[in-house]
Amino acid sequence: MNDVLAVVKGNRAVARDTFLMDLDCALEPSLPGQFLMVKVSSSCELFLRRPLAILGQGEGTLEILYKLKGEGTLELSRKKPGDVLWVLGPLGNCFSPPQNGESALFVAGGTGLPPVLALASRVGSGALVIGARSKGDIPLLDRMNSLKGVAVYPVTEDGSLGRRGMATDVLGELLAGAAGPCAVYACGPRGMLEKACELSGVAAARCEVSLEEYMACGFGVCSACTVKTSAGPRRVCSNGPVFDAATIAWGAR
Amino acid sequence: MNDVLAVVKGNRAVARDTFLMDLDCALEPSLPGQFLMVKVSSSCELFLRRPLAILGQGEGTLEILYKLKGEGTLELSRKKPGDVLWVLGPLGNCFSPPQNGESALFVAGGTGLPPVLALASRVGSGALVIGARSKGDIPLLDRMNSLKGVAVYPVTEDGSLGRRGMATDVLGELLAGAAGPCAVYACGPRGMLEKACELSGVAAARCEVSLEEYMACGFGVCSACTVKTSAGPRRVCSNGPVFDAATIAWGAR
Amino acid sequence: MNTSVRIAPGLVLKNPVLSASGTFAYGEEFSRLFDLGLLGGIVTKGLSLNPKEGNPLPRVYETPCGLINAIGLENIGADAFISGKLPELRSFGTPVIVNFFGSSEEDYALLASRLDVNGIAAIEMNVSCPNVKQGGLEFGRDPEVLFRLTGAVRARTGKPLIVKLTPMVSDIGAMAQAARAGGADAITCANTIPAMAIDEHTWRPVLGNVTGGLSGPAIKPVALKLVWEVSKKVDIPIIASGGACTWNDCVQFLLAGASAVEIGSASLRDPLCFTDIITGIEHYLESRGLDSVTDLIGKLETP
Amino acid sequence: MNTSVRIAPGLVLKNPVLSASGTFAYGEEFSRLFDLGLLGGIVTKGLSLNPKEGNPLPRVYETPCGLINAIGLENIGADAFISGKLPELRSFGTPVIVNFFGSSEEDYALLASRLDVNGIAAIEMNVSCPNVKQGGLEFGRDPEVLFRLTGAVRARTGKPLIVKLTPMVSDIGAMAQAARAGGADAITCANTIPAMAIDEHTWRPVLGNVTGGLSGPAIKPVALKLVWEVSKKVDIPIIASGGACTWNDCVQFLLAGASAVEIGSASLRDPLCFTDIITGIEHYLESRGLDSVTDLIGKLETP
Ligand SMILES: Cc1cc2nc3c(=O)[nH]c(=O)nc-3n(C[C@H](O)[C@H](O)[C@H](O)COP(=O)(O)OP(=O)(O)OC[C@H]3O[C@@H](n4cnc5c(N)ncnc54)[C@H](O)[C@@H]3O)c2cc1C
Ligand SMILES: Cc1cc2nc3c(=O)[nH]c(=O)nc-3n(C[C@H](O)[C@H](O)[C@H](O)COP(=O)(O)OP(=O)(O)OC[C@H]3O[C@@H](n4cnc5c(N)ncnc54)[C@H](O)[C@@H]3O)c2cc1C
Ligand SMILES: Cc1cc2nc3c(=O)[nH]c(=O)nc-3n(C[C@H](O)[C@H](O)[C@H](O)COP(=O)(O)O)c2cc1C
Ligand SMILES: Cc1cc2nc3c(=O)[nH]c(=O)nc-3n(C[C@H](O)[C@H](O)[C@H](O)COP(=O)(O)O)c2cc1C
Ligand code: FES
Ligand code: FES
Question: ipTM beyond 0.90?
């Protein structure tokens, strides 16, 4: 981990309230699931950095995908090519790839697509379920569809693309229909993750979730992000963000 | 007075640490000496507006000239054409033009040039003394020189342009050499104003000074800028910024 | 929709948005910018028995998301206010609340009786002032002293009496209870937080008075907590003061238990913010299908 | 040039820049970012006798130029610290100052004796904690209570004892005097300011714990004033805490009377800021032709 200066190369809307940002940045190599603490503004009015997953990393380049939520992401969306940002990273742990012939089931919703897509791109096989309210909320559909070996299942609440319903509906079916062992990788709203955990439990599948909690430091020093697990308190930023879903005390928060 | 949106048309360095900004802005007509409270940032980190004199006003346009002093003027200097700013104005009173055959002696130093130059342009006769540390600190020399009827006397501390010394040295000589009654109009560092007042007193010239004090509101409600005068306490922003120099209690602050 | 709120017997505001003391002078300047009749109430600059000159300059300094002021309570004095400013100010049809202060209990009491005139809707007592007899400790920092002071003032006025607490105390709830016991009809919570600024180049304080009071968005989280704490301790209405800039801030203060909110520093930066705030609150009520501002007051849901 | 400062008998810091409690954990994470030996001192996360879980999430919330935290003093407990963290931490050659707290006087005293081990250079007592026996009022809000507490701890430790005051009190000078009288070697001034945040859409508090403490640049002007006030009341060294982000801030705190400065929230935002701050102070001394940091301490020139 280090604090490095990044230069904005591109920053464009790719779905409703969703932006893809390309950065030139000499970050150490990262793994799917790891994230950055992005200093969205040099003004200390927005005092805290914002945690954002690494969607992609190349030679001296980074890609992040973010949804407009509040002041911080709004400020990010105003950046133009040539603007600079400090990014601290890579932070946190990473997903553990499928083992022993597991087939991978990727599930994403809300702001959870980036780490899941990063992993799916790396793994290159399995099924990716992406849930959203409506068609217009789903970014990077082309990129997902171009992943050879990964079947993509869009699910929308209004039925405007793919299945109508929730991502976990499709996950349930995929788990039920799976021939061999499965590994489920999920990131998104807490309700979705808990459901994914439950379904995986029923299907005896391994399930890893990437949690999102309010963070202050992002590297383990402030205890802002501590969650309860069966192994005791764990900091999402430094012990996670990826956890074995079965260890999370979903009820407690 | 009103709070109006202004669009930046131009913003360029015209001397060392000195910028000229052109704005499109439907401000009510103003008079020389009046000023604006400029909201330099929509971020409330820089909470207060900054007082800046109106250098020029046309049909729906405004001109301001500012020196880099701290965060606020730095933020201003970063504005690009197309950026927008809120400006509250016109604020304060104005200089009273020469009366009864007075010849006008304009004296400016530091951040004091804008209101004095605005007045000299309007009056169109007399002498303008502009003091600075060095040649490179004097902006808009061409514009001053092009004022027909106004003789321009640059004075620099290092002698790199015009006379070596202080603006008030030249003022003293001009007052001493004046044939008839004079009106002195000064804006700049407090020491310069006090000296101008003193010299005018000796020469029995009328002297008006435009004061600069820290301001919070700029329109008379907070009492941040109250100075002592022989007529009692006066708010620089709303009773001034222009005062009859002889009424100012120079010793008290 | 009903935006009115009741602060004291005989003091109903048409909406919960007031000016704050010291950032609105006596209303004249703002009246040239917008119709003061739109406000829920007008709080004047703090008045003393006699005119007061205030502190040496500089009197204000900007800090991150806030400002420190050390105006030093400059004001024209109660008499000049009553004869020179009140007649126009009361003409806007909005309650005029007069902020006042003294340097001894007798000062306060005398001033309160002096302010017991027509056209003044209520008086707001600033207790963040040094008690000359008590070695300069502020009146608002000791519950006993505050109780006695409030009682002394209560005895001299028929007006609704609002006590404006000082925020920097060990137990703000106890201060509010002391004010209530002394006869306050309402509490303003709170005032600026003691602060200072130093110039590391000159080694001198920036403000002429060395220290001052911090206000603006920087202190809103503190003011919100104080309002919530006070609302759990007293049953009289609370007027919030500290950092409110937007309608959102005001709704938060109402939820925390305030019945109205004063807008101070925000109106120095944006003198036209009052109208945005008032319409913002109206739209919020509408969008939530609420009939009355009172449906928000103290409605914070804690676990 | 001499940047060292003396905080207590046997406690000399090589420079006046320390980490703050709760924003540095036990040093491990930062040690991967820079050499902890560069720091004047390391202040650990607050320790209790037994491990503590902390508050429900969310525990932090951003505010204008600051943040509110309600971590709830989560920590691994004194024993786990001493056996698991201290050996590595002391190896950096920088004094390790252990912050600690309890919920009763006995707790504090017992913990102080437990912390009286090799490798701990000093202990910093956090008194912004509810006194369970006194109905939950914080230890740091009553001079009597603080005096007794300090004395009880003093009796149980040979280490330099630093008392970290709580800022929200009526008379911080009196609190500092109480701590000094009880046997404190130094004062840390101060801690976070009680604050809260409310979501106007959900009508709920944002933090799991409802209230928390405000830190960051927003509170620096308040902390500066507190340090200055304390420095006029006691003659023991003061460590400043509250909003310091830059070398300029640190110089201001030194001028106000602090002997050292803790960097808390700033290091959450910019974990590498320590080195900038330390070199900034060195350059400042150099550019002013000063030989020693001590030439700055308390050198504010007031009118
Ligand atoms: C490890 C991790 C990785 C993430 N990756 C992504 C990503 O790749 N793309 C993306 O769009 N979003 C991601 N998020 C969520 C993202 O951090 C928040 O949406 C964002 O911080 C909101 O900031 P804001 O200023 O726009 O919103 P505001 O609501 O104004 O933020 C206010 C404060 O709340 C915090 N906050 C608000 N929502 C969240 C949240 N859900 N999780 C954590 N903190 C929050 C902010 O960081 C900030 O401190 C991730 C979160 C975590 C913890
Ligand atoms: C009526 C009036 C007209 C002015 N006209 C001009 C002008 O036309 N061109 C120009 O360059 N400057 C002018 N000034 C001075 C200008 O306002 C300050 O230089 C500017 O506010 C500095 O802001 P800053 O944020 O860059 O500096 P900082 O030092 O960071 O400012 C911090 C705070 O101090 C205040 N401040 C600092 N210096 C001054 C000062 N000399 N007077 C008042 N407040 C100050 C700022 O407004 C701000 O609130 C005028 C001042 C007044 C009172
Ligand atoms: C310039 C200025 C002058 C003030 N004068 C007074 C005053 O005379 N009496 C008083 O009770 N409060 C005074 N205050 C405090 C405000 O009324 C208000 O309580 C405080 O600023 C916090 O609110 P804000 O953040 O909305 O400004 C003053 C504040 C400022 C900024
Ligand atoms: C996340 C967080 C955790 C903290 N934990 C502690 C603690 O355990 N003990 C303590 O005395 N102070 C604690 N503090 C207070 C800081 O040490 C410091 O006094 C305060 O934050 C003000 O300084 P700052 O503005 O530099 O952060 C904590 C502060 C933060 C932000
Ligand atoms: S965000 Fe600070 S420990 Fe996780
Ligand atoms: S700046 Fe507010 S009265 Fe002049």
Answer: yes
The whole-number average pLDDT for the span B89-118 is 96
User: Chains A and C: how many Cβ contacts under 8 Å?
Assistant: 3
- Identify the bridge partners of residue B87 per DSSP, sorted by sequence position: B4, B38
C170 to chain D, minimum CA–CA distance in Å? Answer: 4
Q: Do domains A2-91 and A103-247 have the same CATH topology?
A: no
Cross-strand pairs, A182: A103
User: C242 C-alpha vs ligand 3 centroid, how far in Å?
Assistant: 8
Structural class in CATH, domain C5-54+73-194+214-295? alpha beta
Residue A122's CB is within 10 A of a number of other CB atoms, namely 13
- Ligand 2 within 6 A of CB of B214: yes
Q: Give CATH superfamily name and number for B2-91.
A: Translation factors (2.40.30.10)
Sketch the domain layout of chain D as residue ranges.
5-54+73-194+214-295
Residue pLDDT, tens place only, C245-285: 999 999 999 999 999 999 999 999 999 999 999 999 999 99
What contacts A146, CB < 8 A, 6 or more positions away?
Answer: none
Residue ranges of D 203-242 with Cβ closer than 8 A to chain B? none
Give A72 Cα–ligand 1 centroid separation in angstroms. 8
Closest CA to C270 of B88, D126, D276, A246: B88
Domain chopping of chain B, boundaries: 2-91, 103-247
Hey, is B129 helix, strand or coil?
strand
Ligand 5 centroid to residue C109 C-alpha, Å: 54
Query: Which chain D residues contact residue A227 at CB under 8 A?
Result: 57
- Measured from the Cβ of residue B56, the count of other Cβ atoms closer than 10 Å reads 18
Q: Specify the length of chain B in residues.
A: 253
- Beta strands in chain B, from DSSP E residues, in sequence order: 2-15, 18-24, 35-39, 50-53, 56-58, 61-67, 84-91, 103-108, 126-132, 150-156, 163-164, 182-187, 206-210, 226-229, 232-235, 242-244
End-to-end CA distance of chain A: 28
CATH of domain A103-247: 3.40.50.80
Ligand with an atom nearest the CA of residue B241: 2
Q: C129 an active-site residue?
A: yes
Encode C66-81: b = buried (16+ Cβ within 10 Å), e = exposed: bbbbbbbbbbbbbeeb
Whole-model pTM over 0.95:
yes
B146-198 confidence digits (pLDDT tens):
999 999 999 999 999 999 999 999 999 999 999 999 999 999 999 999 999 99
Phi, psi of C253 (to 5 degrees): -65, -40
Pocket residues: Cβ below 6 A from ligand 1: A 35, 48, 50-53, 65-67, 69-73, 111, 114, 212-215, 241; D 62
Reduce the DSSP state of residue D163 to 3 states and report it. strand
Residues of C in contact with B219 (CB under 8 A): 29, 271
Ligand number with the minimum distance to the CA of A220: 5
